[in-house]
Amino acid sequence: METTNQSQNAVKVYLCPMHREVRQPNPGKCPKCHWMYLVPEGTRFGMLRSMVKSPLQLFIMAAVMVAITVAIMITMR
Ligand SMILES: [Zn+2]
What we know:
- By secondary structure, the protein is mainly alpha-helical.
- It has one domain (2-75).
- 42% of the residues lie in helices and 8% in strands.
- The protein has 3 helices and 3 strands; from the N terminus they run αβββαα.
- A hairpin with a 7-residue loop joins strand 1 (14-15) and strand 2 (23-24).
- The structure holds zinc ion.
- Zinc ion binds next to loops.
């Protein structure tokens, strides 16, 4: 018993780019960090990866992301 039109019936799962364990059936904000928007499975990091071309860029982006996270954590207190 197999369905042939799987691409149409594919269940979309939305994931948080920062939290691998977050899997939701609907788009929205991550229930863990409350500020990252969930992205459909498969496209995770797709946009980010296309933007990052070199390891240095990746490092800078990671540093910026950490800085933003820390800033938000401090602000939320
Ligand atoms: Zn998250």
